[in-house]
Amino acid sequence: AGETLAVVEAMKMQNVLRAERDGTVKKIHAAAGATLAVDALILEFA
């Protein structure tokens, strides 16, 4: 818990996504540097 999962940049601000609890990332759906749509899936948990 508390581990950084991703850093998302929006409106020139960086937002850190942190894990709220222990778990395993099953799949990463977004590539580094990719432009994402609103509500786009970034990570999937096992």
From TrEMBL:
<dbReference type="InterPro" id="IPR001882">
    <property type="entry name" value="Biotin_BS"/>
</dbReference>
<feature type="domain" description="Lipoyl-binding">
    <location>
        <begin position="1"/>
        <end position="46"/>
    </location>
</feature>
<dbReference type="InterPro" id="IPR000089">
    <property type="entry name" value="Biotin_lipoyl"/>
</dbReference>
<dbReference type="InterPro" id="IPR011053">
    <property type="entry name" value="Single_hybrid_motif"/>
</dbReference>
<keyword id="KW-0092">Biotin</keyword>
<dbReference type="Pfam" id="PF00364">
    <property type="entry name" value="Biotin_lipoyl"/>
</dbReference>
<protein>
    <recommendedName>
        <fullName>Lipoyl-binding domain-containing protein</fullName>
    </recommendedName>
</protein>
